[in-house]
């Protein structure tokens, strides 16, 4: 179980960006590949607690899960696999270990609240 | 006063610090001409015995050393010291995997130029080590015959982070009715084309093939440098 340390890295990264840009982060958008070795639920479970006592307190973690895509030499295209237990092209069944997507663990965007200061 | 969310694109790898350290290590290894092999497996798969035999046999003709990661105790380093190769223990405390910075720290007193092979034994765990690059040239994943044939199906991620699989304790295969064909098929299902060795560090069966492969890879990596 290494998700807590990964959660801390996510928060650190978001905090660095928010300090540098002088913004208040309300949500962190993360891309998580099916082969990243990290479990979504464990990240979500630890995020709120790990944000306490940081400027990110109250921020949300939004995770987009990315399925594995391989390059299929028969189809000559990127294809999904049958399952993570069977690295074969889901279309034609050709085995392939050429992973083109699925290892991502990436903060892609930060959401900030912009206060509308114009008179109501 | 209303508010509306705005998105700021960032695109940063969460493990970028580890990846940067691993990249620097890889460059250091390349410059020193040392071939680095890491081992991952579940606890009790025979990693330490396998490494002890590998170090003992390679040491006859090559300069070898090992780093060994464990949550606690220095038992593995003591066992590996029997090979008479330089060995250093990395005690991780509660951390379930090695990170590149720990390898970097552990190597500070060693002159990599004096080595042909460096082995890094990760903490016994088939989950967490998969996310962390250690700068190694080759990652071996070990499964023992006593663990059953379906380990690859249960841990596809670690098999996809490794380069080569080793089935260990093959001397016990008969006693535990281990089905080699099924195990091999399961490795190929999660990692098509993966090279799989079967061996017993205890009886010596299959060790020569595995060592020849490592020597070949060392020479290939050095030949690539010359060009």
Describe this structure in words.
- The complex is a heterodimer of chains A (120) and B (227).
- Helix content of chain A is 26%, strand content 38%.
- By secondary structure, chain A is α+β, with helices and mostly antiparallel strands.
- Chain A has a four-stranded antiparallel beta sheet with strand order 5-4-3-6, with no helix packed on it. A three-stranded mixed beta sheet of chain A has the order 2-1-7, with helices on one face.
- With 227 residues, chain B is of the alpha/beta class.
- Chain B has one domain: 3-Layer(aba) Sandwich (Rossmann fold).
- Chain B is globular, with a radius of gyration of 19 Å.
- The model of chain B has no long low-confidence stretch (mean pLDDT 93).
- At the A-B interface, helix 1, strand 1, strand 5 and strand 7 of A face strand 1, helix 6 and helix 7 of B.
What's the number of extended β-strand segments of chain A?
7
Question: What is the makeup of the main sheet of chain A?
Answer: 4 strands, antiparallel
Distance, first to last CA of chain A: 49 Å
CATH class term of chain B: Alpha Beta
Rg over C-alpha atoms of chain B, rounded to the nearest angstrom: 19 Å
Helix-and-strand structural type of chain A: alpha+beta
CATH superfamily descriptor of chain B: P-loop containing nucleotide triphosphate hydrolases
Show the helix and strand layout.
The complex is a heterodimer of chains A (120) and B (227).
Chain A: H1 3-21, E1 25-33, H2 40-51, E2 60-66, E3 69-72, E4 77-83, E5 86-89, E6 99-101, E7 105-115
Parallel strand pairs in A: 1-2
Antiparallel strand pairs in A: 1-7, 3-4, 3-6, 4-5
Helix pairs in contact in A: 1-2
Chain B: E1 3-13, H1 16-32, E2 35-41, H2 47-58, E3 64-70, H3 75-81, E4 87-91, H4 100-106, E5 117-121, E6 138-144, H5 151-154, H6 156-161, E7 164-168, H7 180-190, E8 195-198, H8 207-226
Parallel strand pairs in B: 2-5, 2-6, 3-4, 3-5, 6-7, 7-8
């Amino acid at each position: 179980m290494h998700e807590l340390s990964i959660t801390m890295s996510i928060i650190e990264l978001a905090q660095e960006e928010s300090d540098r840009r002088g913004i208040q982060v309300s949500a962190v958008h993360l891309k998580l590949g099916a082969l990243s070795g990290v479990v979504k639920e464990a990240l979500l479970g630890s995020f709120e607690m790990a944000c306490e006592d940081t400027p990110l307190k109250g921020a949300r973690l939004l995770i987009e899960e990315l399925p594995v895509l391989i390059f299929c030499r028969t189809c000559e295209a990127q294809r999904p696999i049958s399952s993570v237990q069977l690295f074969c092209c889901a279309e034609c069944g050709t085995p392939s270990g050429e992973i083109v997507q699925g290892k991502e663990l990436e903060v892609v965007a930060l959401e900030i609240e912009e206060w509308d200061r114009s008179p109501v | 006063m209303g508010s509306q969310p705005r998105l700021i694109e960032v695109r940063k790898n969460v493990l970028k610090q580890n990846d940067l350290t691993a990249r620097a290590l890889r460059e250091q290894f390349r410059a020193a001409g040392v071939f680095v092999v890491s081992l991952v497996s579940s606890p009790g798969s025979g990693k330490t015995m396998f490494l002890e035999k590998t170090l003992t046999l390679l040491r006859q003709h090559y300069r070898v050393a090992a780093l060994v990661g464990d949550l606690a105790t220095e038992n593995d380093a003591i066992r590996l010291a029997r090979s008479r190769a330089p060995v250093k223990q990395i005690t991780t405390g509660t951390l379930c995997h090695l990170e590149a910075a720990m390898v970097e720290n552990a190597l500070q007193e060693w002159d990599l130029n004096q080595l042909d092979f460096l082995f890094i034994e990760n903490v016994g765990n088939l989950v967490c080590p998969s996310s962390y690059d250690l700068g190694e040239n080759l990652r071996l994943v070990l499964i023992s015959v006593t663990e059953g044939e379906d380990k690859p199906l249960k841990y596809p991620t670690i098999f996809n982070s490794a380069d080569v699989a080793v089935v260990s304790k093959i001397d016990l295969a008969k006693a535990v009715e281990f089905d080699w064909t099924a195990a091999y098929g399961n490795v190929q299902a999660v990692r098509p084309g993966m090279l799989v060795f079967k061996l017993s560090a205890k009886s010596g069966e299959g060790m020569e093939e595995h060592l020849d492969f490592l020597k070949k890879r060392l020479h290939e990596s050095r030949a690539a440098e010359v060009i």
